[in-house]
Amino acid sequence: MSAVLQSPGKGKRPVAPALPSPAAANAAAASFAALTAKLDYLDATEAEQVRKAYRFADEAHLGQIRASGEPYITHPIAVAAQCAEWKLDAQALMAALLHDAIEDCGVTKPQLIERFGAPVAELVDGLTKLDKLQFNTREESQAESFRKMLLAMARDVRVILIKLADRSHNMRTLDDVPREKWTRISSETLDIYAPIAHRLGLNQTYRELQELAFRHLRPWRYAILAKAVTKARNRRRDLIQKVQREVEAAFEGAGMNVRIAGREKTLYSVYRKMDEKRLSFAQVTDIYGFRVIVPTVTDCYTALGILHQMYKPVPGRFKDHIAIPKVNGYQSLHTTLVGPSGVNVEFQMRTEAMHVVAESGVAAHWLYKASAPDGEGGDRLGTKWLQSLLDIQDETRDAAEFWDHVKIDLFPDAVYVFTPKSQIMALPRGATVVDFAYAIHSNIGDRTVAAKINGLQVPLRTELKNGDVVEVVTAPVSTPNPAWLGFVRTGRARSKIRHHLKSLAQAESLELGQKLLTQALRAEGMERLPADDEDHRVIWEKLLRFTGSRSRSELLTDIGLGKRIASIVAKRLVTMLAERGEKPDALLMTRERYTAHENVSQGEIILDGSENASVQFATCCRPVPGDEILGYLGRGEGLVVHTEDCAVAKRLQHKDSERFISVEWAEEPVRPFETSLLVSVENGKGVLARVAAALASAEADITHVDMGDGKAQDATELRFIVAVRDRSHLEAAMRALKRTPSVIRVQRTRAGGTST
Q1: What is the CATH class of 673-755?
Q2: Is there a catalytic annotation at residue 103?
Q3: Which of 55, 205, 544, 686 is a good FRET partner for 501, with 20 to 30 A between their CA atoms?
Q4: Local structure of 409: helix, strand or coil
Q5: Residue 728, C-beta contacts closer than 8 angstroms, at least 6 positions apart
Q6: Active site residue: 58, 70, 100, 103, which one?
Q7: Is there a common fold for 221-368 and 673-755?
Q8: Does 104 participate in catalysis according to the annotation?
Q9: What is the pLDDT of residues 215-270, one digit of tens each?
Q10: Domain range list for the chain
């Protein structure tokens, strides 16, 4: 997995194998000795398992050299050492040592299962797959790669923790890699790995990855800033030491047991602040600060009071992340004080447990799971977010769509709002009322009809602000509106809305498929579909094997979507039923076959406009009630309705006649239908207004108008899409247009030509 590997493994540039020098071998052995010292939290059996994994990895990588000239085994040892810092379990440490074995050493997954067990092999396999991901600039490729990475993380967070440890060590040794690779690796680290580390609360790793990436991405700026910070540190050393002495004395006087540690802003965060806020280095005032580690939560607030008595606080610079934790589980009190000589100094108060979570995030789960296995700590450590990724993946199989869902959730710039019962909820900045409703429960989101913020009625697209009290009004009959997809921000809300809309379309396709198969069966002499009961179970199982469908509902849905031809399925079903002694009715067969349209091979569908996703009205000819029509079962598109004289339909009939079915209009359609009109007019003042008025007087609704891009001539063509009740209504509208002054000609337009 190492970005700096130069070994003869698969896909790598071959180099001449070199034996490690005795000094290098000693260095490797010393490294493992250092790792052993960090394994004191494991029992003897687990430590021995880790040692076995080391021996196996050492043998597998024998002869492989890193770009630095060190034996390759030093890299897995460094990765395992980082994982040991996070107190990961023995399986994770073994996987860290073995993480390059499959890719670079020809070791197979079955071999790892046999030697170290399935859990370790699964972790190594997950890491190997992540190593093959390439983050290209194209969105689809990024989405696919990101999807796999995030899924691996959601299934077992240890995979991503090992991957982050691997990336950290590669970044530490990036100087040994050819310089032309620095930009790609550093950009990938900043864009992909650092945000994931931050989202999981791995603050120390997040800071280190940003710092190393910045140093290699912008070496000149890094060097300039490093020099400036060193000068500032030397200038203010006496001042900082004075503040520390005064603070320690104040806490000692109050009888408080505290641990005080200095904190310096990273060069990357200084650079980003200067860049974003257009500041000079001298204007960045919070480079230095202190962390005050205290025994209890109450002591955090007591410490805050002592500090505010010593120095004046800067207004607006106090944040209580204990009462309202960040979405990645971080908790601390932050305050900025005006110290001696007017220098601003930031203080952070937290308990020891909060400090571990702040530095290790999700990795802290392993530190606390023994003491609080069923506690709420896990919820604070980002596990809810990880599980929500898996939920989204269950509903969304499209990579670009999945990326769309999760990318906003990766950067936790959150707003905090309250439910009517004063429960605090964290949502991404820009989240709306609908996002809030889905965050509470998907049923509430699905049935949302209105909302109040701070007691006032607001539109559902209203963005939430910190401190808002949000109340959602629901109705049992309400369903998600497709327009919500235009403004929701969270992946959860977007996923749930799309899932509901897809389920609705599937239900309609199933109903259409059942109707089509029933009619095709009638044409074969069978009155109705066999019941889905015990008596006909064998028949349905045989039919599903024949079609390759997993269930009866899937088969009917596929017929409704045009993926399967109803007449072919019906013929097979009739043959099976005949073998059981259920013979076709010859009279029904004759009646059904010879009363149907000569160009169609299946029964008739009645259309009234209430059909939604399962039936589409072709935009090439835009049929309206009164037109002679026929239906085409497009592959995966459901039923597409064309006019009988449509040029597109005629071409399809020539190629795919068996996919056409007979369709008829209902006597009373329930809605208007759109069709196209081409209106030629003489140019002049108010012509468009007069044409629109004529259509309005005929009660035809204009849904779209196109005046073209061409330069205005004596005569101009206006293209309208109008909604009418039926063909008679359309003809009345066209007559009204023809009577309008300045109108030269009115035509109904279709693909491949026009018709008056």
Answers
A1: alpha beta
A2: yes
A3: 544
A4: helix
A5: 626
A6: 103
A7: no
A8: yes
A9: 998 889 888 888 888 887 777 777 778 888 888 999 988 888 888 887 777 788 78
A10: 5-200, 221-368, 501-665, 673-755
